[in-house]
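Report of the visiting student (M.T.), summer placement. My assignment was to run the structure pipeline on a short list of targets and document each run. The first record concerns Chitin-binding type-2 domain-containing protein.
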Amino acid sequence: MKTEVFCLLICLGVVTALTRKQESIEQNRRKASLPSLQKKQPLAELEEYEDEDEISDECPEPNGYFRDEEQCDKYYDCRDGKANEKLCPDGLVFNDFSPQHEKCDLPFGIDCTKRPKLQKPQPSVHCPRMHGYFAHEDPRICDTFYYCVEGKYNMITCPDGLVFSEKTGICNWPDEAQKKGCGSRELFNFTCPKVDETVAATHPRYPDTEDCQYFYVCVNGEIPRRSGCKLGQAFDERTGKCDWARKIPECKDWYKDQLTDEELDALENPPPKPKPAGGHSRRKNSKPT
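After the run finished, the structure tokens were exported:
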């Protein structure tokens, strides 16, 4: 999943060019320059232009890339005070982190509340817009979503226990995704037992009665999150930990139809990793004095 998301970001040309520190410095620089930009510049500062009218209202500085104040996916390419209006690819919005960088980005993490307008959508199959991450059309399907590039989609399924969050564009815990109809109770049909504050503070674990490999963690004793053991293991209710399934009486045959005894043996007793040939010890030879 992370690889696919990172690939998408590269394909769209949206990898951040500055570090967070550099971005913060740039934002502070722009804020500091606003008072002077709002004032009418003296003619002496405009000698390179024929008259003040040549400086577009959309250009707070003569050169750079600047957002539109009403439409989140519109921006202006300013050259010598003249603005060239541009639109991001459908589904992306303009990221105004620096006027020196022309950057359209996914809308997650970019505040468009004060400029909510967007261009007319160009939908296709499973893609409400040409680019982006979109939930499944059936609201009852919580763990499946699409990512779209140039109107072509790939369907992705979240790991077990997670649901797609339309707010962040990633898979998340049900209580954090807050997707209607996709809460822990609806998905798992499990409710955390009531416990006292001391037990609740330990985030108690409970077995999934239908699947030996999985269990529930009750965060603060109240919010259930489904987690699992690695292949070949099962949750041991007595210890509250994962162990090899064949060691747990009630789960000893759980992998019988999935893995052979030889495969289980290999998982439980993996061969030692070979030492690198020709390696030199880092320990310095020392002689007693």
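Confidence is low (pLDDT under 50) at residues 1-21, 29-52. The CA atoms of residues 100 and 210 lie 56 Å apart. I thank the supervising group for their guidance throughout the placement.
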